[in-house]
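Dear support,

I submitted the protein below through the web form. The confirmation email said the job was done, but the results page showed an empty box. After a refresh the structure appeared. I'm attaching both so you can tell me whether what I see now is the final result or a partial one.
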Amino acid sequence: MCRTNWCGIRCRAFTHGFFRDAVRNGFNVSTGYRAEDINGVKQSELIERVLGQVKRTLEPFGVNVIQLGFVAPPRPPETVKSAIEAKIAATQLAERAENEKRQAIAEAAKTVEIARGQAQANELLTRSLSPTLVQWKQLEILQQRWNGQFPQVVGNGAMPLLNLNTK
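What the results page shows now:
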């Protein structure tokens, strides 16, 4: 753009006509970008492609374009904006569900390991049991509950725990 005002109308016609059309054509040629890409991570890639296209178009006219960019972020139509927001929400929901799934798997694995440990402990305890040990435990329990009196009646042929022959 010239720094003096002597070309006035010609400069304006160039920037608002030919140059603007060249930039628009550059965007039209650089297709393959989705709306969320243009407003997101691939915006700089798109600008670089359009800049290259504009440079190739204007170079024969002696115009060297150094930089190109958006004056303001692109404004997609409301339907596209709503679709992008819905897609982001769905993605976040899917990620949350995936995280909950991983957590449930981890909790299930923890429960299995606790049960496995308990089973091993029970197995060790079972192996250590003997009839003598069981009798000893029974005596221990009886000793804790005994009030110091012997039973008054003992049923059919049952042997009392202690032999009380007083001969």
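Response: this is the final, complete result; the empty box was a page-load delay. Residues 78-128 form the longest helix (51 residues).
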